[in-house]
Amino acid sequence: MAALRYAGLDDTDSEDELPPGWEERTTKDGWVYYANHTEEKTQWEHPKTGKRKRVAGDLPYGWEQETDENGQVFFVDHINKRTTYLDPRLAFTVDDNLTKPTTRQRYDGSTTAMEILQGRDFTGKVVVVTGANSGIGFETAKSFALHGAHVILACRNMARASEAVSRILGEWQQGAATTVYCAAAPELEGLGGMYFNNCCRCMPSPEAQSEETARTLWVLSERLIQERLGSQSG
């Protein structure tokens, strides 16, 4: 602890939070590096954890990467019509694993269905689950439903199937958590143009990324508003 204090690295509460005078940046190919403005130098390792990181996934819909005249990468948010030197993916970095990968399985007996589906969006998918009113079938149906899938519960007892549906629908109260997370999470401040499901960033469906569909919805919205305003004035 004394060594951290001497180095000025004990001023923050979070392990991943940067000390004063440091800035997090990304290269063109997505590697994260750190700029020390006090000593005017850069390094690949996080100044507190010593870890190397890279950004995960593609840029959010509507974003584009450019390079300024000094060779520094910046980002264009076409939806909100603004530019920033902050990579919108920095909230979703992953550690660079420098060790040799092992054959250890990713999941084990303690893994839940919700953990396996974390970050996945099954909107538009149809899932049929047999024996879905209890046990493994119920947990499977619930997990897929909470991740956007249209789930069909194949059960022999209609009463128990209806009860299972009610229990799954009761879980939708969790849906407000995603809205609150996106509105209040400090790591998302200043970011936009991203889609979240169950408090995890997900890729939107191809239809949601269609510019033609966006224009159609805009025209329809304008027409409905004009019709509504016209009926009120009459």
Summarize model confidence as the mean pLDDT: 77
Query: Tell me, what's the shape?
Result: flat
- Give the tally of β-strands: 12
**What portion of the residues fall into strands of 2 or more residues?**
15-25%
Tell me the helix content.
Answer: 25-40%
Order of helices and strands: HEEEEEEEEHEHEHHEEH
Class by alpha and beta content: alpha+beta
Distinct helical segment count = 6
Rg, alpha carbons? 23 Å
Compile the SSE list and pairings.
Elements: H1 2-7, E1 22-26, E2 32-36, E3 41-43, E4 53-55, E5 63-67, E6 73-77, E7 82-84, E8 93-95, H2 113-116, E9 126-130, H3 135-145, E10 150-154, H4 158-170, H5 175-184, E11 195-197, E12 200-202, H6 211-233
Describe this structure in words.
Keywords: Apoptosis, Cell junction, Cytoplasm, Golgi apparatus, Lysosome, Nucleus, Tight junction, Wnt signaling pathway. This is WW domain-containing oxidoreductase. It is a single chain. A hairpin with a 4-residue loop joins strand 2 (32-36) and strand 3 (41-43). With 234 residues, this protein is α+β, with helices and mostly antiparallel strands. Helix content is 29%, strand content 21%. The chain has helices spanning 2-7, 113-116, 135-145, 158-170, 175-184, 211-233; strands at residues 22-26, 32-36, 41-43, 53-55, 63-67, 73-77, 82-84, 93-95, 126-130, 150-154, 195-197, 200-202. 15% of the residues are buried. The radius of gyration is 23 Å and the shape is flat. The protein contains six helices and twelve strands. A three-stranded antiparallel β-sheet has the order 1-2-3, with no helix packed on it.
